[in-house]
Amino acid sequence: MKTDIHTFSGKWITNKEFENLSPRNVFHRQLENVNLPCDEHRNRHILFRKNFYMDVLPENAVLYITADDYYKLYINGEFVTQGPAPSYNFSYGYNTVDVTPFLREGENTVAVHTLYQGLINRVWVSADNRHGLLCDLVADGKVIIKSDESFLTHPHTAYTETGFAGYQTQFLEEYDSSASEVGFEAVDFDDSYWQKASYKKNTDYSLEPQPTKRLVFEKIQPVNVEKRENTLFIDFGACYVGYLAVKAIGKKGDTVIVRCGQELNDDLTVRYDMRCNCKYEEPWRLSGNEDILDWFDYKSFRYAELVLPENCEVEEIYLTARHYPFELKAKMNPEFEKNFDLKRIWELCIHSQKYGVQEVIQDCMDREKGFYLGDGCYTALANMILTGDDSIVRKLIDDAFKTSFITPTLVTCMDCSFMQEIAEYPLYMVSLILWHYRLTKDKEYLKKNYSLVCRLLNAYKAEYEKDYLLQELDKWCVVEWPNNFRDGYDVDISEGKICHEPHIAMNAFYIEAIRCANIMAKELNLIPYRDEAPLIKAFQSAFRDSAKCLYRDSSISRHISYIGNVYTYAFCLYANENDKMQIEKMIEEKGITSVMLFGAFPLLYGFVRNNRFDLFKKALLDKNAWLRMLSEGATTTFEGWGKDSKWNISLFHLTFSYAAVFLSDVDLKSLFSAEI
Asked: What is the reported pTM?
């Protein structure tokens, strides 16, 4: 993806609150006992404005812009874009925006709404005392506006926090349309009471063009609007990610209660206290004039309802959906195309991918909004196959490797201040790097990543390997999630503990990663990274039950779990054909729905590797898998096979959209081959 390198003339600007704050380190190993304060500066909506005059319109005008944590840009009262994608301060992204269509002769205004969230969560690197805006407006090659102290700034007082959604993922807020800053983006707005912006001291950013595309926005009209006494019920026909837009007129000081949800209650009201532990209910205070609801942060929802005060009139309702640019390039496998049920699953995955992927791959767009490395590998691969665009895959790989500044064995969530380490996740990514190469044949990118893969695997070896087995893991191991899908996995892999004994899932992923590294080395005409044979021998010696020809959970346990054998099968680590047959008998008995998010993907490509396309198709058509989601009214993939699969299930979760990989016309045998 071609990017525009720019050296900024402007400087980072902020307000008096943040002017002298020094950056705070929010990064640490998960098991370190670190407590960071998050109450002194949080939920700060900070506005900036600059008026300027143009005698003649330029032929070309580009705005280079970024902010920390986030910005929304307006020019002459029109919304232009928002960003940047989450990133670390040492490789902080800026956006390049063609603003030529938004300028006009005479008086112009650039207005920016920034947010410093100030929380430790999975969304942004925040609570780090870094806030600011940086921009240059370049017209016909000349900088005509730059961020400096001539910009005016003021807090946006329309937003008052009323609680949290998810894992302190976003603030719930009362929006007050009578606040004096409402309409700040207009050219004729009175900013005479605003202060001059301050230069941000103690900045420590290294800037680079954002390597991914900016979001696109779609106006989604409701398919049904129904008046129910004092409540207006709205259905948009499917789940989306974005902002509810409402235009209303009512009495000054009256409050509209706004509720959103992904499904309905039994009485057909909106289930705004959602299964995913987000309670989407917020007040909107009216000004007495024509008001527009203006949420800054987004939600994941299909339905909305407005509890209206007396004599309040709603003039317009729509949903502004936000998502990564999506153009479907892949086709469905011709063998599956005529199957009605498989086509429904394909369409479910397409809608989920199109409207779910944001500036990064997130698992769910409600409870967490997290850029997770593990399931993100599978979701990103699906996105790349469907669109032919590998930018989201590259963002995931590049940003995952950047986390080596925290630990050489990497962390779980990228580009955020939430510190979590899941041991398998970086090993998933090694496979993704190989899959990316097989699809793109980009040898330069493979070469760059191969050296990083070697460094990663060397770190795992140095930290955790003994007698060819990984053990003493100071990282959490998921194995499968939720834990009721682990089939009684007999290892203490609890978060926050050290897992002492070697166990089968972790070592299976480790060997698979080493195998992938060896395949990469061959493609690059290099010597193999490492002989995997001694590791496979140690694996079989530690975990194989010779009497049952199946594989135990750990080196000290007699327990045999389904998930442990799924990984053994998928990565072809069984000792012989008889063992393979015994595992396949277990698979036929238990099926795909006895595993979940993390086991189902390897199981499917295990069928491909082992030439069991009968089991492959049976799994996809299992009535309790993707078809169950559809039978329960899914318009987007769930976080489980059904609504009761998980205690905090999101009904818009991207991971299971990876079914599209297996339904597409991609050459699965070549993609997932374990052969060097």
From this structure: 0.97
